[in-house]
Amino acid sequence: MHFHPPTTFSLYSTLSRHFSSTTKLPKLSKIPSRYRPKAIHLAQKALTDYLHTTRSLPFIYAEHISKNALFSLSDVASKVHFSPSTFFKSFQRFLRYHPINEFEFFYESIGINYHEINGFLPPNKFFLSEDSRVLNAAFAFSGFGFPWNRLGELYREEISIFSKNPSELSRKLHGFKDYGFGSVTVIGIGLVFPYVLNGKTELGNEISALFDDLGKLFVDFDLLNCVEGNVDAWIEVCRKIKVFYDLGCEKGKMGELMGKRKSIFLEYPEEVLVNKVEFFCRLSVNKSDVGLLILERPEILDFDLEDQMISVLGLLKHFGMNTKELKSISEKYPYVLGRHKMVNLPHVMRALDLQEWFFNKMRSGKHHLLCTCVVGNEDLDKDYKGSLDIIQSSRTSIHTLQKLNFYVFHQYILSYMISTLLLHNTIYIRSYDKN
């Protein structure tokens, strides 16, 4: 048998990822805690031997399944009497007389959540040989280089792919390399844009447009030589590209602009990109315009748009609003004035009905002003005096001045309350967008 025992560190790392999961493994109460890693290792060996020798699976795939199905494996192990000296043989005997549902192990091994597997199991089938289409498709993907335990991502998104002829899948995957991409790049594209593997006629133009963009970005602008040659690196790059398409940026027309701004895909984590996108989407402007803003002004990704404090009137003046306009804002929206965290700026602008005005300032090149409009504690007196001058010259100066004095007296209380309400609105909108 060709099973190679893992090192202590690799086995510990593998088990830690699963035992620390929010989904708890079946309790191995029959096995003393000090023996559990060894028991799992022996169970993996026995299962690999069973799938390879008894069920005639190629060894490499039998090993993939046994190493990546710890929940299913632990469930079976909990039913087997444990003894350090006999557990391996006991587990083998259990498999001979108690056939397992091989589809459960297979689906977990490719990355399907253990507690969701029942929704994927074929009815009245127990052995992989009873429905070999899914398994053969997995063989084709794995043979090309796809990580076995990430095939579930493909299966979830485009389940019909796994009913295709393995030779057809291999031809399609190798055909993508004709664009000048390496195998690892094709894998990243396939995992992030799985519909390209489906081959549906109605998606032909969309797929062609996507590869036009990717060809320009990866080949013409040489991104291929700037990314590490591993699957995870290419998945991250492709996920960042997908952010712009999800915003509505048109496929087939973004390749050159993305290529000129390839630093976005090389230097910034996906989380930073998504956070900035969400910030500007909260302005309720066209989402595709948000994507274009980030591509046209990538330095925005360096801005702190979370915790910095801003003065509403100070920011409006900073962005070019004149005294007359500021006076009008003070009269109409006195309850919005004051200091806020930068993260609440989109909701402040919407409350002032200035979201389009503000966003157009961003698009026109005034985005850099966001870095210089922050108000510190030492600027509070100036902020107050500026507001006072504007209000005193307004038609409702006495009434509004009383409000201003009240607001300043309760400066921190009001700032906290408004920020909390706006932050609650932020959380609600983020939740709504995700749904």
UniProtKB/TrEMBL annotation:
Species of the source: Camellia sinensis var. sinensis (China tea)
GO terms, biological process: DNA-templated transcription termination
GO molecular function: nucleic acid binding
Annotated Gene3D superfamilies: Transcription termination factor 3, mitochondrial
Protein name listed in UniProt: Uncharacterized protein
Pfam families associated with the record: mTERF
Protein family according to the UniProt entry: Belongs to the mTERF family.
InterPro entries, per the entry: MTERF, MTERF_sf
UniProt keyword terms in alphabetical order: Transcription, Transcription regulation, Transcription termination, Transit peptide
